[in-house]
Amino acid sequence: MRIGHGYDVHRLIKGRKLILGGVDVPHEKGLLGHSDADVLVHAIMDSILGALGKGDIGKAFPDTDQAYAGIDSLILLSRVYGVLEETGYKIGNIDATVIAQKPKLAPYIPDMRRKIADVLRTERENINIKATTEEKLGLTGREEGISAHSVVLLVTKKDERK
Q1: 161 among the known binding-site residues?
Q2: Is 61 annotated as a binding residue?
Q3: Distance in angstroms (rounded) separating the CA atoms of residues 139 and 147
Q4: Is position 60 within any domain?
């Protein structure tokens, strides 16, 4: 087995959609970034790449490459899944936390879990997503940004011929 941790943070600004876990979350602000700035998916990708010893999303999908400008992060996650598929590992489980003062995310978490599980070709039970605030402290508490952490456990694939 292999374990990886991922972290991402993006600034909130007016004039952008808020995309978290591949879900369009209604809010007056969205996240600023080269892609769709989906901090949750970015943290998950970093945790998977880290567990595999493959660097991070900045190395895999540099923000200097215009091919990734505005791209849906679920597309990037599918590419990370392609890297994972080439190894002898599969998703054991993912535990992720989104840190945001607003909006409340609980109603959107089931859809986030479904979308991420579908891209990673794993059971929804293997994807856990939580949301918390920072009690109005720090950049997320002041509603300046949103951050996310992710931990992944990769396990070896079982011989499917048995």
Answers
A1: no
A2: yes
A3: 9
A4: yes
Domain membership of residue 152 as a residue range: 2-156
Q: Is 97 annotated as belonging to a binding site?
A: no
| pLDDT at 70 > cutoff 90 | no
- Is 46 within the bounds of a domain? yes
- Does the annotation flag 149 for ligand binding? no
72 assigned ligand-binding residue: no
Domain count, the chain: 1
Please indicate, yes or no, if residue 161 is contained in any of the structural domains. Answer: no
| Ligand-binding site membership of 11 (annotated) | no
pLDDT tier, 162 (very low <50, low <70, confident <90, very high otherwise): very low
Residue 158: pLDDT over 80? no
